[in-house]
Amino acid sequence: MTSAQPANHLKAVYAWLMLLPAMLILLAFTHWPAVTTLVNSFYSTPKGRRAAVWVGPENYQTMLADPIFWQAMVNNLWYAGVSIPLSIALALLMALWVHQRMLGRAWLRMAFFTPTVLPMIAVANIWLFFFTPQYGLLERLTLWLGFGSHNWLGDPSTALGAVIWVAVWKEAGLFMIFYLAALQSLNPSLREAAAIEGASRWAFFWRVQWPLLMPTTLFVLVNSIINAFRTVDHLFVMTKGGPDNATMLLLYHLYEVGFRYWDTAAAATLTVVIIAILVGATLLQFFTLDKKVHYQ
C-alpha cells in the first residue's frame, strides 16, 4: 500500500506535466483574451494619449441603439437558420448516396468533398464569376432558359440568399465526410435484419440509421452554428456587407467597427455578444438534443 501511493502520485504528476503545454496555450490564446475582451467592453476606446476610462454598460446601450447591429443580427439569424439545415440535409443525402455500392463511387466522393479543401476566398471568387451580371455562368444559364438578367449580389432581396448558397456549397462536403464515416461504422447486420423483416428503405433509415446518426448530427450541428457566426471571408470578396447592409453579418460588422473605424470598445462589446450567442446555442443543444442521442 505504501509503495503504491508514491507511484500513483508520480503518475498524476506526469499526467499534469503532459497536459501543461496544452493548458498554457489554451489559457493564453483562448480564455485570457476572452476575459480581457469582457473587461474592455466596459471601458471606452483609448485614443492617442487619452487612456481608456470606465463607462460601465454604455457600450452595450450604444450597441443596442445601433440599427446596423440589429440588421446584422437579423441577417445572421437568417443566415444560420437557412444555411444550417440546408448544409446538414445536403450532407446527409450525399453521404447516403455515396455510401451505396456504385460505379465511380470514389470519384463522386471526391467531387462532393472538393469544395471543402478550397480556401473560402477562392470559393468566393468562383461564385463571384457565376453571379456576375450579363456574362456570369448563372446569368448565361438564365438567359438561355428565357429569364431576364438579374444582379444577384446587387439586389438586397437576393444578395443574402446568394451568400448563403455559397456557404452551403462549401460546408456540405465536410459534413458529408462525418456522416459517411458514421454510416460505415454501423453494423451491416442491421440492414440484413431490416430486409428480412420487409422494412422499406425509408423505414430502415428513419427507424434505424437516423437514431444511430444522432451523435454525428449533434457534432455537425454544433460546428455548423459556430461556422454560421464566424464565417466572414466570402463577404470581403462578394458583397462587403452590401448592398445597403443586406448581407451584413455580425462578424463582418465587428471587423468594420474594430478595424475600419478603430472603435475597440465597440468591437469588444460585439465580441462578447457573439461569444454569448455561441455558448448559449451550444449549451442549449447539448441539454436538449443530448437526451435524444443514442450512443453506441
TrEMBL record:
<feature type="transmembrane region" description="Helical">
    <location>
        <begin position="77"/>
        <end position="98"/>
    </location>
</feature>
<feature type="transmembrane region" description="Helical">
    <location>
        <begin position="12"/>
        <end position="32"/>
    </location>
</feature>
<protein>
    <submittedName>
        <fullName>Sugar ABC transporter permease</fullName>
    </submittedName>
</protein>
<dbReference type="InterPro" id="IPR051393">
    <property type="entry name" value="ABC_transporter_permease"/>
</dbReference>
<feature type="transmembrane region" description="Helical">
    <location>
        <begin position="162"/>
        <end position="183"/>
    </location>
</feature>
<dbReference type="InterPro" id="IPR000515">
    <property type="entry name" value="MetI-like"/>
</dbReference>
<keyword id="KW-0813">Transport</keyword>
<keyword id="KW-1133">Transmembrane helix</keyword>
<dbReference type="Pfam" id="PF00528">
    <property type="entry name" value="BPD_transp_1"/>
</dbReference>
<dbReference type="GO" id="GO:0005886">
    <property type="term" value="C:plasma membrane"/>
</dbReference>
<dbReference type="InterPro" id="IPR035906">
    <property type="entry name" value="MetI-like_sf"/>
</dbReference>
<feature type="domain" description="ABC transmembrane type-1">
    <location>
        <begin position="73"/>
        <end position="283"/>
    </location>
</feature>
<feature type="transmembrane region" description="Helical">
    <location>
        <begin position="110"/>
        <end position="130"/>
    </location>
</feature>
<feature type="transmembrane region" description="Helical">
    <location>
        <begin position="265"/>
        <end position="287"/>
    </location>
</feature>
<dbReference type="GO" id="GO:0055085">
    <property type="term" value="P:transmembrane transport"/>
</dbReference>
<comment type="similarity">
    <text>Belongs to the binding-protein-dependent transport system permease family.</text>
</comment>
<feature type="transmembrane region" description="Helical">
    <location>
        <begin position="204"/>
        <end position="226"/>
    </location>
</feature>
<keyword id="KW-0472">Membrane</keyword>
<keyword id="KW-1003">Cell membrane</keyword>
<keyword id="KW-0812">Transmembrane</keyword>
